[in-house]
Amino acid sequence: MLNILEEYYKTSFLPPRYNPRKLDNVILKNKTVIKGITNSGKTYFIRNYLQNFEKNSFLYIDLNDARIDFEKLPKELESFCKSKKITTLILDSYQQDMPLPKVESIIIVTNQNIHIENFDEVWLHPLDYEEFLSFEHKFDSSALNHYLQIGGFLSIHRLNQIDRVMHIQKELKNSTNDIELDILKIVAKYSATKISPYNIYEKLKQFRKISKDKTYQNYKSLADRRYILEVEKFEHKKATKKLYLADTFIKTALTQDKNFARLFENVVFLELYKKNTQTYYMDDFEFYLPKKNELVFTKPFADESKLFKKLYKLEAFIINHQIKKITVITISKEDVLSHPFAKVELIPFDIWALGEDE
Fold first, then answer.
1. If I label 349, which of 59, 71, 114, 165 is the partner at 20 to 30 A Cα–Cα?
2. Which pLDDT band, with edges at 50, 70 and 90, does 358 fall under?
3. Are 112 and 36 in contact (CB under 8 A)?
4. 251 Cβ partners below 8 Å, 6+ apart?
5. Mind listing the domains of the chain with CATH numbers?
6. Residue 159 carries which DSSP code?
């Protein structure tokens, strides 16, 4: 066991090329848990973060290492850190049942929703569109098309197209159990629609023996770890939630569904979600942002005549909720429409996603 610790201690863990992440601006506290779904870039981020430390002041360990003896590790780890005067310990792929040694600073990296007393929690999500662009060779319409095709999983950029689906399938199988993976397949097929845990149970029991409790338990695990993201209906907390995927390539990897409108809606929602925008859905439009007095429509190929008819039906809502702005997110169409009560702007996704928050 000491040989493995010595090996980690002497090894450099710098990424071959680092593309900036927005989390780079976050100062990690002495006790921090970095969470995120598989392939969100946690290990990539933390290994780059180690450049801020003196080489002999930290110890990084990947707990997925099959050579580790977990019965001996806690005691030997504390002794090793003390002898080497380690001030920062990084435990990657951490599971909650492992005791923590006494070290001045501990950074835990995990794809579990782990809560540890006195530890700050930081979530790292797959790449948003702005981060994605740092991996692109050119900044034109092909960049958006590429993002819609492959989403924000970090590792995909290093793979040939033919290997991407199987790679993400393998990663998802490694990070979920069989029931969770089946639930994820169902949510992937019906993403950006209203679907309840009971609806999922009804679909699951068509091909496997399972109870409602077991379904709900595994669904909650996926939601807690943010593989599945829920959106409430405005002023209807008990209504069925709309479900979205943490990354749209999950849909590509687990289904043959080609509904572009729903995929586009999922992409738009992820930009709102990653900016911590309070978001609700409504039956007549995709998103309501109450703190911004804004309605958001996702219309990749907007038809202005249909849009005007919809806005006419929504006038009571617009007036009653003092809506100041109506944003229609498109693939490429850009325009400002005349409306008596609110500013109506058609804006391409890439311009909207890269715009400054108001």
1. 165
2. low
3. no
4. 188, 189, 191, 245, 257, 263, 266
5. 2-123 (3.40.50), 127-268 (1.10.10.10), 284-358 (no CATH)
6. S
The string of pLDDT tens digits covering residues 189-234 is 999 999 999 999 999 999 999 999 999 999 999 999 999 999 999 9
Element of type H or E holding 193: strand 193-194
The dihedral through the CA atoms of 342, 348, 349, 350 has a sign that is negative
**Count of other CB atoms within 10 angstroms of residue 186:** 20
* 67 token code pair: 């050579």
Report the distance separating Cα 204 and Cα 338, nearest Å: 48
pTM of the model: 0.93
Q: Mind listing the pLDDT tens digit for each residue in 129-184?
A: 999 998 887 666 789 999 999 999 999 988 999 999 999 999 999 999 999 999 99
Q: Which two tokens stand for residue 185?
A: 């397949």
Q: How far is Cα 334 from Cα 17, in angstroms, rounded to an integer?
A: 36
195-199 contacts at long range (C-beta below 8 A, 24 or more positions apart): 195/240, 195/243, 196/240, 196/241, 199/240
**How many residues are recorded in the chain?**
358
Per DSSP, the three-state class of 9 is helix
Place of tokens 């930081």: 122
